[in-house]
TrEMBL record:
Gene3D superfamilies, per the entry: 2.60.120.200
Protein name: 1715_t:CDS:1
Compositional bias segments (type: Low complexity): 64-76
Domain of life: Eukaryota
InterPro entries: Beta-glucanase-like (IPR000757), ConA-like_dom_sf (IPR013320), Glycosyl_Hydrlase_16 (IPR050546)
GO cellular component, one term: fungal-type cell wall
rRNA processing keyword on record: no
Source species: Ambispora leptoticha
MF terms in GO: glycosyltransferase activity; hydrolase activity, hydrolyzing O-glycosyl compounds
Record key words, sorted: Glycosidase, Hydrolase, Signal
Biased composition range(s): Basic residues: 27-50
Length: 332
């Protein structure tokens, strides 16, 4: 009899645990696998009101939304129709960054366009770009059954290169913030929404993530890659993150070692290669991944601002752009 009671108690416990696990799985399965035609970035870094539901990971970098305050530069095109691309190494000693509303549409006059932030979202000193994430003036951490998130976001930086690159190699030396919830991103982005990403997420300092999108079609969690970064990891030292983009393949490299290759041939759907193929800006940024439960989960957030003694920072010491001369009219 005692045995039977013990067995019954055990059975009830097993059923309870199983129910908990299944319930958890179910809440995960609510995360949509595929959303078409939706912006994959927060609408506004400043007043974004996150919805209290599980959401998929936000990827890329926040893009400008206020058309009136943002220039839409015309891509520089040579007489032969090729994209004009500047091959150079930016060591952030004589770098020119202009605000979007001041940009005169002449890529010769600046290296980067500042698309967001306030006066303190970046500084250039000691031969490096310091990308700074400022805290929100106030915020609450909201608990949900899926994952907590913050009611207000910190505001960070997005830089857009003035020139576009149509295939080539770009390398950036980056020392990323280790703070959970802080996302460092370095991507290529075409006006049509072709995108190739490197993303460094705080509190997972031994990994870097890769991703890509084609034609603005956002496939959540479909194309992402997760790659080992050797100790001491993404935050204790500068590592070199490279994108080698050719018409046939994209290779992601860490410190010169290839960690992933995407072949164009493997992206063909119904006869169309869904492969990034259009001239793209290079963008650098830091943003707050605390704004929704799914995003905060992915970003190892939400950010615990109360325990931060200073604003989260990511340092970039060099960006090297080598344009493919077959596809670009290359200038120096
Ligand atoms: C970047 O642009 C924003 C928006 O125009 C502006 O408020 C800010 O001062 C700029 N940042 C710097 C460091 O110039
Ligand atoms: C990283 O996550 C752990 C576990 O959640 C936490 O204790 C720690 O404070 C986090 N560290 C940072 C730098 O975010
Ligand atoms: C920044 O890059 C995006 C993506 O290519 C482009 O559409 C946009 O016009 C650029 N904005 C500015 C102000 O340079
Ligand atoms: C990357 O891999 C590590 C180790 O397995 C894991 O902790 C981390 O959550 C992974 N990140 C993503 C986005 O899959
Ligand atoms: C491919 O095209 C066929 C016929 O038009 C269509 O039924 C199918 O859904 C398409 N597949 C994909 C993955 O788009």
């Amino acid at each position: 009899m005692a045995r039977l009671i013990k067995f019954s108690i055990l059975l009830v416990l097993v059923l309870l645990v199983a129910g908990e696990v299944l319930g958890h799985r179910k809440s995960h399965s609510k995360v949509p696998k595929k959303i078409k035609g939706h912006s994959h970035v927060p609408k506004s870094q400043h007043h974004h009101k996150p919805t209290p539901v599980a959401q998929p990971a936000v990827q890329g970098i926040p893009q400008p939304t206020s058309a009136s305050s943002v220039a839409s530069p015309t891509p520089a095109t040579a007489a032969n129709g090729k994209n004009i691309c500047r091959s150079y190494t930016d060591t952030f000693s004589n770098t020119r960054i202009v605000e979007a509303q001041d940009y005169n549409n002449d890529p010769k006059t600046a290296e980067w366009i500042n698309l967001s932030g306030t006066t303190s979202t970046y500084s250039l000193d000691g031969g490096q770009l310091n990308m700074i994430l400022n805290p929100p003036s106030s915020y609450e951490t909201i608990t949900t059954s899926y994952h907590p998130y913050n009611s207000q976001l910190g505001y960070g930086l997005t830089l857009n290169s003035t020139y576009l690159m149509h295939y080539g190699t770009v390398s950036a030396k980056i020392k990323a913030s280790p703070i959970g919830g802080v996302v460092t991103a370095y991507i290529t982005m075409s006006p049509e929404g072709d995108e190739i990403d490197w993303e460094l997420v705080g509190n997972d300092t031994l990994h870097a993530q890769s991703n890509w999108y084609w034609n603005g079609v956002i496939l959540w969690g479909v194309h992402g890659g997760n790659h080992t970064v050797p100790p001491p990891g993404i935050s204790e030292t500068f590592n070199t993150y490279t994108l080698n983009w050719t018409p046939d393949a994209i290779t992601w490299l860490i410190n010169g070692n290839p960690v992933r290759t995407l072949n164009k041939a493997d992206t063909v759907v119904n006869g169309t290669a869904e492969f990034p193929n259009r001239p793209s800006h290079i963008q650098l940024g830091i943003w707050d991944g605390s704004g929704a439960p799914g995003t905060a989960d992915w970003a190892n957030g939400p950010i615990d601002w109360k325990s931060q003694k200073s604003n989260p920072r990511t340092y970039v010491s060099e960006v090297k752009i080598e344009c493919d001369p077959t596809w670009n009219q290359v200038i120096n």
